[in-house]
What we know:
32% strand, 2 domains, alpha+beta, Jelly Rolls
Amino acid sequence: MGKFVVDKRSACDTRKRGFTLMELMVYIAIVGIVVIVAGQAFSNSTKMRIRTQSMLKASEVAENVATLFKTDVAQMGAKSSLESNATDGSDDTFSGVYDSVYMYPKVDGDPDDKVEDLSSFEFVPTSPAPNTNLEQFKMRRLRYDSDGKYEAVEEVSWILEGKVLKRRCLVIDGSAGDDCAPKGSSGTDLDNFTVEMATDVDSFKVLPAIPWHKADDVTEGEDEYLVFPDESGEFKFVYRYDAAKHIQPLFVGAGGKNVILKKFASNYKDDDDPAASTEKDLNEVYAFKNTSPDASWKNLCGDSPIHLGADTTYELSFNVYPEPGAENAIKSFVVNRDHMAVGFRNVEGEPIAGLDDFAFYPPLEDDAKDIERKVRFSLKSPISACIAFTFSFYSPVAASAPIVFSNLKLRVAESSVYKFDPNTTSVSTKYKKNVKAFQLRLQVKRNGESGEAILVIPTPSNGPTD
Length: 466
């Protein structure tokens, strides 16, 4: 039987064999590289986490402060409060304007040589040394109680002093509030109502929306926003269809600020008068300056159209009322059956694409002379057109009613068209009342990382009442 022989020397040599010096050095080098790479990755991850947290914190602070700023500024210019009705004591009427909301409402006989400023905000210019980085934005508004009644006029200031953003409130008129200094406060008393809103503020900019205006060399007293008719306010109507197309021709006023239209056609079907059933044409009249020559509407519209630009808001307004002394037969006007509208037409008499007519109600009250009708619109592209009024009555009674049109105007709605310019931080006193929005740019730092908040805040109450 054979035997299995073990080579003891080979086994012993195998057990005693280890790493060579070269292998060990290579191993240590590999482990060192892995440790360095892992350590660097961990360090970078930690730094990134810290930077991210700092940026998030800075952004959070900026956004929180921006929200508080928006709450203040959105109320800018609020000037009327709920008042009790003198007759029955109910709270269903509003007060007049509290003039102290305005920065400077100039009054007759005022010896102070200031320009009237009906806005409710003010930028305080940068102060000289040592406060070389002092910026201040002031705004005024009403404060109300829980029932919407007047308590006070407040002036809120946001101040960047060095790197610290502060908020201060001062009562201009009325009672003091919990967070607002009493009227006439100054020095330490005023400082007690100054709150630190944020530190490490790199930038605090409040940009006013620059309102639309034609030029700075407008003649004093001229309405630079007026598009039609002209400073005289005189206009005339020219009818589109000739007399043969109507049972009774339209009466075209001789011009001026008041024009009377009467004897409209009716589409009422009279079985005893077959001809009446064919008279379906809309009454349509075009408005032109009173200085326009006597010509057809088509020639006038072709020679002297109204040019309207894109991205601009326009306001068309007029008064309409019954002819004084005449019976107000227009009371028989029926909605969805009778029709009165104003719009624009091109030289071919066609409506403008994308700009529908605006329907309006007739004057149902005898004393409606001072009731103004207003419509606002804007265009995506410029047009050249003419103003047209259309009328269609079913009732012969309503069609016989004489109606007066007055104060017809087409203007640029200056307070609705604006832009922000990062290089412009102020608006001339003349146009401050038309500023209807502000842009806040706030930049805050935390641990060397920046967070930013950019916010647009509408301020519809700034300026005089519309």
